[in-house]
Design a protein that fits this description.
alpha+beta, 264 residues, 50% helix, two-stranded antiparallel sheet, five-stranded mixed sheet, single chain, 10 helices
Length: 264
């Protein structure tokens, strides 16, 4: 029958294979090319993903053992070790560390995928495997785009990951968005996506919230689903926006929406 975690875990495997193959054929000088993530080179993005894989694996193992999440000191030591690597080492070790993490997820049996909860150390309560795998998939997919967009401005998010990235969005949207740029205006938007087709609501008030589609919105955003995801993580600059993106009605402009979601 399977569990909700199966899809994100499969998408993690597909993403790993695709990014590892892409990175393996890069000449050394391209590892030092500036990525689409502000001020990070391609190698530094890989270092971030590799160190994140190590920390994610340690967090998963702690949950399986019934102990608490690794503390901040553990994370700091992992980051420092990766920061000290050369670009070539960062690329090579990324492939190994992420393969180990993905393989560990794949090795979880059906009961564990359905029943295990994982304390990430920075959220109020533990999450199930499906949610944690989706969070890792988001980090992996967005940073994969950072690398690919450095070589192709028309790059898009991996299609097999997109459907799974809306799952954690409701939990994250308040952290990703800030409405200070709107000067106190309250705006209700209907968001209609394609590939896949979704109908959502985006409420911009004191906070940013994701809702069901509003009955009487101030405006309508029509946008490919992968571009909607890139918008809320600060990766939809004009040069990276697909032609199918259209915002109609009043309340807010697309440029203002970009400032609501400055990215990470």
């Amino acid at each position: 029958m399977g569990s909700r975690a199966d899809g994100p875990i499969q998408a993690l495997r597909t993403g790993h294979e695709q990014l590892s193959s892409f990175v393996a054929q890069l000449p050394a000088h391209d590892l030092e090319r500036v990525s689409a993530a502000d001020e990070w080179t391609v190698a530094q993005v890989l270092s971030h993903l590799g160190s994140g894989a190590e920390i994610s694996l340690a967090t998963l193992e702690a949950a399986l053992a019934g102990s608490g999440a690794p503390d901040g000191e553990f994370n700091e030591k992992v980051w420092a070790r990766w920061d000290a690597m050369s670009p070539k080492e960062q690329a090579e070790n990324f492939a190994r560390a992420n393969e180990t993490l993905v393989r560990r997820y794949e090795g979880l049996d059906e009961a564990t995928r359905a029943e295990l909860t994982i304390d990430l150390g920075f959220l109020p309560e533990p999450l199930d495997v499906a949610a944690v795998a989706a969070l890792r998939l988001g980090e992996f997919t967005y940073h994969t785009w950072d690398i690919q967009a450095a070589f192709d401005p028309a790059a898009v998010l991996a299609p097999g990951a997109v459907e799974h990235l809306f799952q954690p969005l409701g939990m994250l949207i308040g952290f990703l968005g800030t409405t200070g740029e709107l000067g106190g205006r309250r705006v209700s938007l209907a968001v209609r996506t394609e590939r896949p087709e979704l109908s959502l609501g985006l409420e911009l008030g004191e906070e940013v919230t994701l809702t069901d589609a509003p009955a009487d919105p101030d405006g309508v955003l029509e946008i490919p689903a992968e571009a909607a995801l890139r918008l809320v993580v600060g990766r939809l600059a004009p040069e990276h926006a697909p032609s199918g993106t259209r915002l109609t009605g009043g309340g807010v402009s697309l440029d203002e929406l970009r400032r609501v979601f400055p990215g990470f």
